[in-house]
Amino acid sequence: MWTAILVAALGCYALKLAGLSLPPRVLAHPVVARVADLIPVALLAALVAVQVWSEGGTLTMDARTAGLGFAVVALLLRAPFLVVVVGAALTAALLRLL
Q: What pLDDT digit, counting tens, does each position of 4-54 carry?
């Protein structure tokens, strides 16, 4: 286990070092800046998709999907973050009770 932790730590350090060693002209390129802005969004979307639609290695549609739907609609309506989170949780909880 410690070997995996050390290898992962060294990999993270090497990746950080590679990013710091790039010339500034590469980082100033508009395409690189746009991709760097979108990577966190893509990673977060992938994390949400895995947490909502997977269970035990299979795809599933359950109350979590309805909770996510509520959250999307609430965000589109510019609801406060607390309303989004509590509303999504309540939606999923109420559907699980049925």
A: 999 999 999 999 998 888 888 888 889 988 998 999 999 999 999 999 998
Whole-angstrom Cα distance, residue 12 to residue 23? Answer: 20
Query: What type of residue sits at position 16?
Result: K
Q: What are phi and psi of 54, to 5 degrees?
A: -125, 145
pLDDT tens, position by position, 3-14: 999 999 999 999
% helix, strand, coil for the chain, step of 5:
80, 5, 15
CA gap 71, 78 in Å, rounded: 10
Beta strands 58-59 and 54-55 are antiparallel
pTM score above 0.90 = no
| Strand, helix or coil for residue 62 | coil
Rg from Cα positions in the chain = 20
